Amino acid sequence: MRIGIFTDSYKPYTSGVVNSIVSFKEELSRWGHEIFIFAPNYFNHSEEEPGVYRMKSLPSPTNSDYSLAIPYYPKMQNLLKKIELDLIHAHSPFILGQVGLHCAQKQQLPLIFTYHTMYDQYVHYVPMAHDLVKKLIVQYSKYYCNKCDHVIVPSSIVKRKLNAQRITTPMTVIPTGVQLQKFATGDSGWLNEHYPATRNKKILLFVGRLTKEKNLEFLIEAFKDIHEQKIETVLVLVAGGPFEEKLKDLAVASGLILDEDIIFTGVLPYETLGNVYHSAHLFVFTSKTETQGLVLLEAMASGLPAVAVRAGGVEDMVDSGQNGMLCAERRLDFKNAVCSLLDDEQVYMNMVQQAYKKAEKLSSIHMARKMEKLYRMVVNDNNKQSLITS
Fold first, then answer.
1. Which residues pair with 173 in a beta bridge?
2. Which of 361, 364, 338, 326 is nearest to 205 (CA)?
3. What are the chain's domains?
4. Residue 85, helix vs strand vs coil
5. Which string of b and e fits 146-162 if b means at least 16 CB within 10 Å?
6. Which of 123, 128, 178, 313 is deepest in the core (most CB within 10 A)?
7. pLDDT tens digits, residue range 320-339?
8. Which helix (H) or strand (E) holds 68?
9. In the chain, pLDDT over 90 holds for what percent of residues?
10. Entry pTM
11. Position 64 pLDDT exceeds 90
């Protein structure tokens, strides 16, 4: 099949959406499918990737790393006729999602949309009228979903929320799979070598962008309680983002020592993440807005159990008591969950084995097979409908 991907974010930008696109593209391409990606360009990024078409763009006023595409590509329709797509898959309902919708209608192609994000939970990036913007986003998302032939959701909770909004388009749960081969092995001493303050300590690890919606203020406050009970712990945050300086200030105000009790590594090369995961003792995750939380699966593929706040798609990823612990957003509960796992070696080792099994179940190969099956079904349905109407 020949699949057109329309997305408002792509490499070199780092996000769960980008990781999802790259993961599915790699697996599907190995099986002979051709993937064409339509995405924004990024300032000072000139790497050419076959099959990727870049739209001119402007930097986002609220996130300098993010680009907003200018939805103008005068030769788009001629290009689409030339590459003869079988379907279009949108990964955003907004700028390039709208371009994808228009192209699907113009070319009479089926349109699939992956609902990666609960967009109404990100209105803090809009400078004013949050309640109004939230309402408009919900209405617009419903409109867009109902224009599609099929909607993919990464977790069961997203499906329930969209059903509650009376979206009539068929929906299928397909999480982004984890690429097992990238996390199966790693240097367990990597963090000790590069960050000597982690030596002889239990490393609690977070991987992800440092943004408001990740609820990292709660994580730092909870870690203060953990550290008071277990002085041999250290919190390592592997990421960058607009909230970094505020989080460092909070850590210092909480009495934590930067680069000793809590370490901000900044962005690390993707190829080092396997080493990072294998160096840690527990993965800690406090976001309440995740539709999935792919980093949880990456951690499990590295044999790393997780302690997470019970919210959103995280509940599909962490089977509490088996491969990790879910708890309410209360500092005492979070502290107790972390400390209990650090204290009980037998329970911890059982969770390590269960983490591997969970990652295997949700591997990128298994999820890509589900996606391939869905693609074929949607294309076949569209071809049948074309025959009926012709």
1. 153
2. 338
3. 2-177+364-389 (3.40.50.2000), 180-361 (3.40.50.2000)
4. coil
5. ebbbbbbbbbebbbebb
6. 178
7. 999 999 999 999 999 999 99
8. strand 63-69
9. 83
10. 0.90
11. no
